[in-house]
Amino acid sequence: MGLISFLKEKFHKKEKDKEVVKYTEGLEKSRKNFSNRLHNLSRRYQSVNQEYFEELEQILIESDIGINLVLRIIDEVLEISKKENIKDPEKINEVLVDRMFIGYAEKGDVVNELSFKEGTPTVVLVVGVNGVGKTTTIAKLAYRYKQKGKRVLLVAGDTFRAGATEQLKVWADRLNIDIVVGKNEQDPASVAYDGVYKGAREGYDLLIVDTAGRLQTKANLMAELSKIKRVIGKEIEGAPQETFLIIDATTGQNGVVQAKAFSEVTNLTGVIVTKMDGTSKGGIILAIRDELGVPVRFIGLGEKMEDLTEFDLDKYLYGLCVEEE
Amino acid sequence: MAFESLSDKLQGIFKKIRGQARLTESNMEDMLKEIRVALLESDVNYRVVKEFTNSVKEKALGQEVLLKVNPSQMLVKIVHDELVELLGSDDSELHLQNNRPTVILMVGLQGSGKTTTTGKLAHLLKYKMHKKVLLAAADVYRPAAIDQLNTLAKSVGVDIVNMGTSVSPVKISEVARQKAFDEHYDVLIIDTAGRLQIDEALMDELNQIKDKVSPDEILLLVDAMAGQDAVNVANAFNDKLALTGIVMSKLDGDARGGAALSIKHMTGVPIKFSGVGEKITDLDIFHPDRMADRILGMGDVVTLVEKVQEEMDEKEARKSVNKMMSGRFDLEDMIEQMRKVQKMGSLGGLLKLIPGMPRISEEQQAAGEKEMRNFETIVNSMTPEERHNPDILKYSRKQRISNGSGKSLADINRMLKKFEQMKQMMKQMEQYRKSGKMPPGGLGGMGFPGM
Predict the structure, then answer these.
(1) Residue B67: is its pLDDT beyond 80?
(2) How many domains does chain A have?
(3) Dist. CA A181–CA B169, nearest whole Å
(4) Which fold would CATH assign to domain B102-294?
(5) Which residues contact A4 (CB under 8 A, 6 or more apart)?
(6) B111, A133: Cβ pair inside 8 Å?
(7) Within an 8 Å CB–CB cutoff, is residue A175 touching chain B?
(8) Closest by alpha carbon to B263, among B392, B89, B76?
(9) What's the complex ipTM?
(10) CB-CB: which of A162, A217, A279 is closest to B151?
């Protein structure tokens, strides 16, 4: 039994499961594109030939998975199909999903949720390029862990973009969560210091530090990030325990370059993909995992506070590849 | 992982087919494959890549290879020209009205840079085109978006219609339009909330705004980092609103920006501006040839030359060149030269524009810039006499300068050594000039620190 049938079986049984429904609904646009096309493709061909693989290649590339990884996946699928003499397009598609799943999973186990230790706040540093949705995602993360009964403190470390601090403040007010803000254009590292100082002494469980969006090519701004990280580590040992890179689902091949550059200065522990409710497939996360091993931890599926869910490879692939019935 | 530039790759393939005089189907096949990969790595849409490589192939087949260039260079040129043609347009300027306010509507996905670009556009219209600009804050959804635009309006020094978040964007736009007409503004720019192209309610809202204010320009913001889906986004916005232009944002990063090509090709909407930095002045008119170079990873020589020209006052430059040549080059001249280089933008940014230079690491660049600052600090602690005649610097003067600048004696000596090298170079150049020959290697290696 191919993996995809296994997944189907696994999830059909709990179709009503709220998380799965959220996934399939949220990913509907992506799914329609990807799986419909995959499905239509297999219906148009009696048996696979070179043309079929070319079309498969197109579907994968248009999901932003990236040409190099795509060529490799296709090669692997070709090889397996030859070895096992598979000609049926439906079966080939299963092999394809298998390969994607295994390629991702063999990079190691992932625990998505944050972990907490009595007496020491967990510090999450949030980084990324401009306009990917850092501030909104921070609000969603804060909401998520407040719901779980954690005492959360936000640190408004984006002192650069006009209105950024106000934006985070609005969220803090709405969620009734404490926030540390600096003055405009104050050194973000010193705001981060104020934040962890307060967080360490007043018994918070979770500190989430916002940073200004920065393109990975700006050496000074990247140096600033490693300074922020150092400052946090000086005040709370081992912190930040998590550094999340926020990536917009619409991002193309530059996403891998971003992940590489940010992990060089901050040691990334995870990726959060935002705007997955659009038509983009976010395939770049597969390339990031492939090149750097950094896993996706959460995905943003909408504008509401609860629209941030744990990333689950099974569900992601299920959402992408389930057939319309 | 900076992608290897296409010209490097093609050069490698070419080695195998050296000596062939014509581009043929068989000797082009590998090269076309590389072109395809390069375009896909640059996020050019799959379908566009397919059409594009086919048309390049047609154009190239049977082309006589010019004597001085090799087939790979020839092919790069064909690809480049084809890209420029596809990216370009005769219609890349704003349609500004003369006898009534021009209304510009900014639209796009979340995070594509609408609000920032609105501020930059206001700055450009006000200071370069001397227009009276009014902004309208119609993004009532994202928290603090209005605060952000308010801050930008203040820093540019333009008026803004700000009605808070409880009024509908359609209403805000109407009121702003009325104000623009009543109070004789030249341009009104309406900043709208980011939205997904599949969000029907919000797309309808844009249509209503369009009906009420009849904009002269509807500009779609597209992120330079956008992937394959950018085409679908642009198509949807274009179908719904009939766009008049595209603005590429975040081109100051290292994304290749292939989406620009895809969108232009699929929608035909002209690209009018590109956002190239975080400062309010960082909005450029779109240059198709530079974008083509960028997509191909070939560096941007023209921009470099222009930047240099902009920042160097010609007269002043001639003065200092004369001074250099006559051997009267002193420390102040050296710092002056360095300042000019710094003014052109960071050294790193400049180096990236030069083809064949990408192998200098970020650290090396940063070190070079740091050295420049060190030199400046040291010179600032000198008396005018010392600056003009560094030969008088002996131990006690150096000690004083060291105390004043906080730099070590070794730092000071290193700077003086560099200065001597530069001076030496100037003298040599003068001799070359007199003898009518150019030094080997041109003006390169002029000895800017760290290079």
Answers:
(1) no
(2) 2
(3) 30
(4) Rossmann fold (3.40.50)
(5) A93, A94, A97, A98, A317, A321
(6) yes
(7) no
(8) B89
(9) 0.83
(10) A162
